[in-house]
Each structure stands twice: as structure tokens, then as C-alpha cells.
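dumping this here so i dont lose it
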């Protein structure tokens, strides 16, 4: 069974690269290029991503708003959430983590490191469920 991942990123070249990476790594990938589309996807009762990767700076709302929405969602509030952002200042990272993000990866990043982070989060989540 493939892991479901939701990637929220407005930079199309990066979104396509991430989609390809995770698809080739056995994930079922859903994408959104703005916050409104991401929230619409999260509100679908039949869509349960096992991990979410989200840019902080989106065209219609900050990624922080998506995280807030997710954490208030009855059935998806514990979904692992990774911010992926060019905002690399210590205060930006701390804000994201304080808001409830599980990880904060700064751009530029090594693609294998992101894949390893996602796989580690999924392994921990599975271990916690046992």
C-alpha cells in the first residue's frame, strides 16, 4: 500500500520535482499550489494524507493558516506536517514549530534529506500506533 502525501507548493518546478520524487519512491501524491486548494483537499472526508509538506509563503494565504486549519480538523489533526520554506531565520523556524509543525525544512535542501525525514516520520507514526 502506498503512503499518501499532500504537497502544497506554489513554485511549479519544485512541485513537479517533489511529485516525481515521491511518486518514484512509492507514494501516492496529491498536490495543491495554493492554500485554498489545500484546505479544500483537507476538508474532503475521503482524503487522508499520511504526511503533509507545505510551503510557508503561498499566494493566497500563509502555510501557517493551513496548519491551524489542519490542527483543528477532527480526524486529521495529528497528521505529520512539514514546513518547507525559504524563510530560514531562527525565528521563522521556531514560529513554525511552535504552531505545531513536526518539522521545518529550509530551502535550499537536499532532496534525499527530505525523503529521509518523511520516511522517518511515517516509521515513527506506525510505531506509535502499535
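and the seq i came up w/
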Amino acid at each position: 500500500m502506498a503512503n499518501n502525501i499532500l504537497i502544497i507548493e506554489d513554485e511549479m518546478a519544485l512541485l513537479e520535482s517533489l511529485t516525481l520524487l515521491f511518486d518514484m519512491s512509492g507514494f501516492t501524491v496529491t498536490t495543491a499550489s495554493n492554500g485554498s486548494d489545500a484546505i479544500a483537499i483537507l476538508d474532503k472526508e475521503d482524503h487522508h494524507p499520511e504526511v503533509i509538506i507545505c510551503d510557508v509563503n503561498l499566494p493566497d494565504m500563509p502555510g501557517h493558516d493551513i496548519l491551524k486549519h489542519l490542527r483543528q480538523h477532527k480526524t486529521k489533526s495529528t497528521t505529520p506536517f512539514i514546513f518547507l520554506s525559504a524563510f530560514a531565520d531562527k525565528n521563522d523556524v521556531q514560529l513554525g514549530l511552535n504552531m505545531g509543525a513536526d518539522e521545518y525544512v529550509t530551502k535550499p535542501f537536499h532532496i534525499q534529506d527530505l525523503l529521509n525525514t518523511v520516511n522517518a516520520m511515517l516509521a515513527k507514526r506506525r510505531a506509535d500506533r502499535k
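The beta strands are 3-8, 27-32, 51-55, 81-85, 103-106.
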